[in-house]
Amino acid sequence: MTAAENVEEAPPRLPAVLVVVVVDDPAEDLTPTLTSVSAQAEVPMGAVVVDVTADSVVDEAAVRALVPEAVVRRAPGASWAEAVNAVLTRPERLPFMLVCRGGVRLAEDAIAHLVSEALASNAGVLGPKLVDREQPDHLRSVGLGSDKFAFPVSAVEVGELDQEQHDAVVDVFAVDTRCVLIRWDLLVAIGGIDPAIAADGDDIDLGWRSLLAGARVLVVPDAVAGVGPEPVPDRRSRLRHQVRIMLSGYGAFRLARVLPQAAIVWLVDLLAALITFRFDRCRDLLASWTANLRHLGGIRRRRRQVRQYRQVGDGEVREYQLAGSAQFRQWLAARVAFTEGSSAGRVARRRIDALSDAAVRNVLLAVVAVGVVYVFGSRHLLAGSIPAIGSLANFDVVARDGLGEWWSGWWRSGLGTDVPVPAGHAVLGAMGVVLLGAEGVLRVVLVLGAIPLGAWGMARTLAPMESRRASMVAAVVYLALPVGYNSLATGRWSALVAYAAAPWLLGQLARASASGSFAGRSTLLTATLGLGSVAAIAALFAPMVVLLVGVMAVGLVAGSVVAGNLTGMGRVLVATVGATALAFGLHLPGALALFRDGGQWAPLGASGGTEPGTISLTALLRFDTGPVVATVLVWGLFVAAAYPLVLGRGARLVWAIRAWFVAMAGWGLAWAAQWGALPVALPSTEFALVLAAVGLAMAVGIGAAVFEVDLLRHNFGWRQLLVVLAGAGLVCGLFPAVAASFDGRWSMPRGDYDDLFAAVFPEPADSGSYRVLWLGDDSVMPARGWPLRATESFALTDDGAPDILNQLVAPLDADTRAVRDAVRDATAGRSNRLGRQLAETGVRYVVVVQRIAPAPFAEQEVPLSDATGDGLSEQLDLQRIEGVNQALIFYENTSWVPSRAAVPPASDRVPEPADAQAVLVEESGANRFTGVVEAGPEVHVATPVDLDWQLTVDGEVAARGDGLGWENRFAPLNRGDAVLTYRTPLWKRLALIGQVLAWVAVMALLVNRRRARERT
Description:
Shape: globular
Number of strands: 28
């Protein structure tokens, strides 16, 4: 062979590479990295070691002993991006730069493979296959994917075994920047590494910008590098950098499409974090946008740079991105795999393994079937709107008024009171603000979400029994019982809240007992915190739910006595007392309303009652209390619930008996309320039947666990036949709920009063502020009120129709009691001038509600008593408005005086309508009203006397006095722009701040205790 032939066969010389080793960890041993760099063959190289540690730990002599041509640079405190960008300023530029961190160990031919592939594929960014440094058969990274929101997704599970499944050169969105080969001219063209993006996100940013510049991003599995454990990511930085990458990477047109989608994903994530009390996640999500909004100038500069080197459109980059939200898919996959943090590879295998289990497969199919039925039954409510009936009022003002009224400290309930506003107003208002005023969406989520939330809680209650079938059966039975749908159909807000909360309350009580399957599931303190937190959250919307905790505890103790096993009942009673105290404490100072004016039940949400004896005991047992008819097939569920009483053994039998007694406590409570045997009225019959439903569902679920465990101990015989009978009963019991789904609205009326009220009630700005007096049976009233007589109640609202904020009321004080007494006198024939008596309170309309929805949407009429109806018709100053709707009797007060009016000075008589001029008609905040007033007349404000009300005219405070013996009067000295406001006392503000801090502290303590338990 000639010398010429030898020359022809010699491999071509590869272009030179500058190896940049960034040392940012003082504890990392640099020797293996430099040794592997010096061992590289076939590639001409230069080397730069950049020491960014604070103490400059790199020994220059030691570096040159391993790599003689290496240059050491020191940049204490510099970031990884700044270190790399500084190298770009070198006058000597090589074709390629290999950037790696200290601790990376390169295979001897790694750089050669990377450079060769770069030349062959014309790639700009290439990464090796990263493996564990100590266990080379465990994979660390073979490239990264990304969705449209810059959320990174690894192609492999960390620690996944290397079985050559990733040994093909592939195009990827990004590569791990712990070791990456970059074409020098590409890095210069895109402006280097973004210094605003630290280690959490630099990989996605580099890949994205390289793709925009027209370069390919590849993983070369023949090139191997060993790395240590992946550093723990800073989640806040990662979120912040995701937003920056999106804002700077997309063109204007694509950004306009992606940003609304990103906002939706962000809001869902934020709501999920709020619901699960992960306040650190909430803080990080908020910071991700606020931090970028503060640096819009830098983002604009980055966008201009991108336009300069952009070679491909966003559509081509989109081809490399994953469809949908990778974050949501990863969360869902982790939940299905029952393991937090699992990546796609292992999750897929676990899904296959799980689905191979027939029991799990059947459970999943049941979940899908139940979900389909519920969505099918709610289809018209989802596609249209949920009618505002009963106490399911609209949410139109929660974003505007809820939070502000709570913070102001003046509650508009009745004629107004300084009783602290319930925290539920603040929570609803905060939810409305988070949803950017989309109150309709919030209403759908809370109303229609209550039923599946209750079913989920039922499944979680039986989770400690370690039987998926038991959990699923209990949840399905709970969904099948009519109580939830009748609560919807009749507009029972309190019952819906109780339906959602009851299973979670029962589950916490069971865990507190630490008996049977629930042993070791929770400490007494954690269970008490959990029970109190659930009760407090439910009490935000329906305060009387707290009382159900005590009834449940009584049922459990009674069942334990019958079962002859009192194990854990002492703990249950301690948890009940502690949780009740905690729930009361979390609602301070608003909870003090219970003790106002001698103590009243009204703040708990119970004003009227059910006519004694109107619902039979048989109907109560079948949950037949509304339009969702519970047929005789419901009795089949009783057969299924009796099954564990016959075949159950040990702890399962004990808990089945306890579940039955909880159910009997619910039926007993409803029956006692029917006959007026309770010292307090319940919000509705369904409210009590929720306890019966949760107990019955738990018993049937325990029966499923008995079938899996206890039945296996017996040979075939009558017990197996009993299983068939119980199964048939279970199936039959599900049919009524399925049948109820056919109308697509769970028997809710097809219309409500909203449009009618909007047409009848004027805007305050047109004629002045006013109040509406509502009268009717408690079962059809659109606002929560106070007892009038028997089952009749009365309520007051400001400026028109009621809303969700009118579903809680303050104690009946002396001023509002005067309204009640005036109505009683008028309807008893002792007065025919009710309008004149009500004029000073601002009552302009008196509305008698006789149906839950207007005709023709509701047919069942619940009229007032003859005495009340005849008494109203005989009033000389109440003019009946005809033709509104036959479901209503509508009166206008001809003696009405606006709630805020200019009246003759120094008058101690109710002014005539002609002498009253409406003022301060503009509402500019919670309990803040503005307008122009004149000098001379006094300003009448129909709110009870309170020194904290203040009127300023052009900045000058007007003198305040008492008018008519109960209301506020102001005497402006000059004409000008006036502001009427309630000056919140400092002690109230401090109390509200303390309430917020108490909630945060309790939730943080609960979350930390649970996380600590999970870790152990």
